[in-house]
Specification:
This protein is α/β, with parallel strands linked by helices. The chain is built from seven helices and ten strands. It has two domains: about 180 residues, P-loop containing nucleotide triphosphate hydrolases (Rossmann fold, 3-Layer(aba) Sandwich); about 60 residues.
């Protein structure tokens, strides 16, 4: 895997502020209303990396989809640089837990889809080269590994140079070693681009390694339970003693004995 980026392809971006105000989201199923998010308020600064932790079903992914404009709030609003999100917002790119590559398109063609109708084969090839996939550009998704497919999905998200990058557990399905390698890749991305990132994860160590701030959500409908500032530069040392105390506090919140 490549360990450096060429600044001509992946470079400092114009990151954006994300403001979430009194945000609530409910779903109605079989006549019953399910309140997933209630009165969430969160300010995410330009260039900040925020990790969302919390129990399954607490609304982490729903919150991410609301920022992307993939869902409509029941009440409240999300703004990016003071402009309200209304429908799918082109200032955002999102990477899901599954790569979601089109099986009938090769890797470079899948990456080009991130340009939303425009074509730039050269840029797509350059980004793939930087994430270690240059020689696999003409392969179909079924011909590459899960880690490679997720790197391709990340490349597709980056090619449009988004102001906000949304990551919905993009490493959850990977084996342990590949996951660590992908965390390193994301850490390099953070240092290189300065893009605003919101990361949903269940992995406490992943959140500590990548985020400037960890936001813990309570049970479904409870909103934000606590926040933790991680005042360390990127890339980080996983063994940094400064992370140990925060790790212990987070373990305690989730009832885990360190």
């Amino acid at each position: 895997m490549s360990t450096t980026y060429a600044s001509a392809v992946i470079h400092k971006t114009d990151a954006a502020n994300v403001s979430i105000k009194n945000l609530s989201k409910s779903f109605t199923r079989k006549g019953k209303t399910l309140e997933v998010i209630k009165d969430v308020n969160l300010e995410i600064n330009s260039g900040e990396i925020v990790a969302l932790l919390g129990p399954s079903g607490c609304g982490k992914s729903t919150l991410l989809r609301l920022i992307a404009g993939l869902e409509t709030p029941t009440s409240g609003e999300v703004t990016i640089d003071e402009r309200k999100i209304v429908g799918l917002d082109e200032r955002c790119s999102i990477v899901f837990q599954e790569p979601r590559l089109l099986p009938w398109r090769n890797v470079v063609e899948n990456v080009e889809l991130g340009l939303r109708g425009r074509k730039d084969n050269g840029k797509a090839l350059a980004i793939l080269s930087e994430v270690g996939l240059g020689e696999f550009a003409t392969c179909l998704p079924r011909q590459i590994s899960g880690g490679m497919a997720q790197r391709a999905a990340l490349s597709r998200a980056l090619i449009s140079e988004p102001k906000v990058l949304l990551l919905d557990e993009p490493l959850a399905a990977l084996d342990a070693l590949t996951r660590l390698q992908m965390q390193d890749l994301l850490s390099q991305l953070v240092a290189t681009t300065g893009v605003t990132i919101v990361l949903v994860t269940h992995d406490i160590d992943e959140a500590l390694y990548l985020a400037d701030r960890v936001v813990v959500l309570g049970e479904r409908g409870e909103g934000i339970k606590s926040t933790f500032e991680i005042n360390l530069s990127h890339p980080r040392d996983r063994k940094d003693a400064a992370l140990a105390s925060v790790r212990t506090e987070l373990y305690s919140i989730f009832g885990i004995h360190a």
